[in-house]
Amino acid sequence: MSAVNLAEVLSQLAQRGLDPERLTELVQRLDIEVVSADLSQAAGAAGLHAATRSQGLALADCFCLALARQRQAEVLTADRAWLAVKVGIPVTLIR
After folding, report:
1. What global pTM score does this model have?
2. In 19-57, which positions are buried (b, 16+ CB within 10 angstroms) versus exposed (e)?
């Protein structure tokens, strides 16, 4: 998981009154690899954002896609709108 996306999740949960530090502990217990954003991901996210912005993807969404492209991995999402995004990265809806 990109650190950018983790920050987004933690921020949204903090806005709902949950403690970001407690949530960070939970992520560590789940053994999720948190990947620092790098120059390659930033450039990839920028290009993906330009290509998908009209479909409603945010820049943080594009960091997720850029990391998946870099790792040749599948993206798991609960956002149905991502199924319409055709950028050569496999996307699976989880709910």
Report:
1. 0.88
2. eeeeeeeeeeeeeeeebebeeebeebbeebbeebeeeeb
pLDDT tens digits, 28-45: 899 889 999 999 999 999
Contact, 81 vs 52, CB < 8 A? no
- Cα of first residue to Cα of last residue in the chain, in angstroms, is 18
How far is CA 25 from each of CA 14, 22, 33, 45, 77, rounded to the nearest angstrom? 14, 5, 13, 27, 22
- Could you give all domains of the chain from N- to C-terminal order, each with its CATH number? 3-93 (3.40.50.1010)
The C-alpha atoms of residue 29 and residue 94 are separated, in whole angstroms, by 21
What is the distance, to the nearest Å, from the Cα of residue 19 to the centroid of all Cα atoms in its chain?
Answer: 20
Residue with tokens 């921020």: 11
